[in-house]
Amino acid sequence: MAETSAVVVVTGANGLVGEAVCRALRERSAQVRAVVRREGAAPVLEGVEEHVGDFADEAFAAQVVQGTDAVVTTVHPMGSGREVQHEVAVVGTPVIARAARDAGVTRLVHVSTAGVYDRSDGVGDVAEDGPLLPEGSGDYPDTKNATDAALAQVEGLTTVLVRPPAIMGAAETSIWNTLRPNEVRGGARGANPDKSFAWVHVNDLADMLADVAVGAVPTADDPAAGVVEGATTPVLVAGEAATWRDYHGAVTEALGVEPEWTDEPVWRGQLVTERAHRWGWAPRVSLSEALAELKQGLHA
Question: For residues 160 and 146, is the Cβ–Cβ distance under 8 A?
Fold first, then answer.
């Protein structure tokens, strides 16, 4: 793994993705400015410096990005109401993006989501140029799409929209390893077993985010070859093919309950990750390893 002397800002550094990105950046010898809202919340790692503040505050954003090489933004309050999601993500994230641009920061790496794409029955495989969901599809996809669009309007900045599907990984705040299984405990056990379950492990996602941030992925005129300088480039990341029979079956088995299989129309395609692979990324965590981690956590 190539070492670097880069200085990188990470917003939401105490979250599932943010903490993993901090670790991945330190593995690459980058210095990290970890932005959190509460003192003492940043990962305790050598080379990680905690910065307490609101990245949507112009003065704080301008201060924290000075003298850095990249910014990684990971914050989106998806469990909150639409107004909060809009204020934090759609309004707030471009503030630090503009500050980064004005400070001459090389790259902004934003955690978007594959959830912005239409993945309904009959759509088939989805690549970066696939159709986006229309406005009115839900608070989360609407505000994620709006955030991506707002970042694309920040001219003079090289922006990468990394779009993961379901993010697997052990943590109390993990949607797919903790919160969704809690819903199953509460009785939400219905799922079509043939529905595609697109996923990526948080550590593999962090590898992509860190590699882009430190410049391990080169700039290029063609997004198939690298990051397009001065433009906004989306890239999909996903692990091996899986279905809800794999995920939901593992959760219900670990909890000792019976799944309720349904047969409604569902998406059966896959996320096309050719661009990510051409950039040099490849997932290291297998489906069996991710599900074993999930089951271990639920048993514990």
Answer: no
Residues contacting residue 183 through CB under 8 Å, at least 6 positions apart? none
* 230-256 tens-digit pLDDT: 999 999 999 999 999 999 999 999 999
CA distances from 30 to 13, 224, 288 (A): 15, 26, 31
pTM score above 0.90: yes
How far, in Å, CA of 96 to CA of 7, rounded?
A: 16
Query: Two tokens at 69?
Result: 């090489």
Q: What are the residue ranges spanned by the domains of the chain?
A: 7-166+201-238+269-275
- The confidence score (pLDDT) of residue 2 equals 57
Which pLDDT score, from 0 to 100, does residue 278 have? 98
Nearest to 27 by CA among 279, 216, 290, 242: 216
Within its chain, how far is the Cα of 32 from the centroid? 18
Residues of the chain with pLDDT below 70 are: 1-4
Half-sphere exposure of 29 (CA within 13 A, CB side): 6
Q: DSSP alpha helices (H): ranges in 103-221?
A: 139-152, 180-185, 202-214
- Structure tokens given for 59: 């003065």
69-126: pLDDT as tens digits: 999 999 999 889 999 999 999 999 999 999 999 999 999 999 999 999 999 999 999 9
Which amino acid, residue 215? Answer: G
Count the Cβ atoms, other than its own, within 10 Å of residue 26.
Answer: 18
Q: Quick one: which of 198, 202, 195, 209 has its CA closest to 171?
A: 202
Q: 24: helix, coil or strand?
A: helix
Looking at the domain 7-166+201-238+269-275, which fold is it? Rossmann fold (3.40.50)
